Amino acid sequence: MTHAALLAELAACIGDAHVLTGAAAEPYLTDWRQAFTGRALAVLRPANSSEVAQVVRLCAAAGVAIVPQGGNTGQVAAATPDTSASAVVLSLLRMNRVRAVDLDNDTITVEAGCVLQTVQEAATNAGRLFPLSLGAQGSCTIGGNLSTNAGGTQVLRYGNARELALGLEVVTPQGEIWHGLRGLRKDNTGYDLRDLYIGSEGTLGIITAAVLKLFPLPRAQCTALVAVSGLAQAVQLLQRARAGFGAGLTAFEVMSLACMSDVTRAFPQQRLPFADLPEDAWCALLEVSDHSDGPHAATRLEAVLAGALESGVALDAVVAVSGAQSAAFWHLRESITLALARAKACVKHDISLPVSLIPEFVRATDQALATAFPGVALRVFGHLGDGNLHYNLLPPTGASNADIQRLVHDRVHEAGGSISAEQGIGQCRVEDLQRYKSALELDLMRRIKLALDPQGLMNPGKVLPASGSLRVP
């Protein structure tokens, strides 16, 4: 079948207005970081899972690859096509319905194109909490969140996206629909297909809908911004917070003072509520959820912070006295990525390590980078509560970004950590995955890919190399 004939059949399936080519397709072809721009045969915008299945069947018959795309907010260009113009981009943004809310079962069923913030608001309107929370929540979609097993700021209490999903609806590479939208918390009937698709970045099939867990709305949330002299002290503060709040500790973020300074320079309307901190200081952002009331939450938080200040673990602390001040503290944290986006040369890492190893890892790796690349500037922040750091840096002029990344990832691997904690592999980290995964792990991943997608048409070149190099010996 010629490409022209395929496009005609696709238009008959989903409508001419939703087969985009030329200038209309361009907004879908560049990743969020603007590091990769691809080309596509067309951008397709189906309205429901049946149309997705029809599209996949047509493309499979024509041997045309498919790049699924949600909000296109990812950091590793997993939803961006290559430059061959031989694939279609399949946008799920029209599939944005909340299908059902089951309060007795504490679940919400949504389509993959639902924006995360829309799901949060639907849960709140029903008197429940959907806890997945990301800086991009106003534009990222549930399908993208699940395909990358997104983390965010409340993993410490509620887990990653995988822990928040009970059932899925998936279109397979053959254009079949797996109707797995079961809101069951217990189901031991064979292999867990749900967990196979979550985190696979669209390389095994296309998630079109999901049943997600809901939780009781906390009666009160209390936020504090705390200054500490280093990461070792931040870990000590984390242990005090865990002991003091247990499951009530819903977030524990850390940000270097350099990151905070970038934010206040880029966005002068934002202010850090501390003065005269040492240059190597860090800030910790704590959030406590309470099912009693606001005064009870504040009293518990102030008691833990008072002990930290008296012992010298903390240098200073400010407890938010209003929702507006709490939002301002979170806005500081969420603006770091935007501030760094202005530094086009930023080299980003999304690593995870056991919390106990993080202070020494950062100290030693900072030193190794300074020795190997004089003038390097570190910009480190992240989710200390679950061991995930965004270990970013601004390289000196003339330095090789690839050499910098190799140094950092080698040290992460040696320490038993992960080179991708929550952002995925996409096309940015394919070579790294080949370097650090064991031969057996890679072989098992290839076998799964070949079994489910023998034509290699699902998001080729993401996570694993393109199909031509996937043959199992």
Automatic annotation (TrEMBL):
Domain FAD-binding PCMH-type: 36-217
Pfam families membership: FAD-oxidase_C, FAD_binding_4
Annotated Gene3D superfamilies: 3.30.465.10, 3.30.70.2190, 3.30.70.2740, Uridine Diphospho-n-acetylenolpyruvylglucosamine Reductase, domain 2, Vanillyl-alcohol Oxidase, Chain A, domain 4
Keywords noted in UniProt: FAD, Flavoprotein
Keyword presence, Flavoprotein: yes
Transmembrane annotation, as ranges: none
Protein name (database record): FAD-binding oxidoreductase
Source organism: Achromobacter spanius
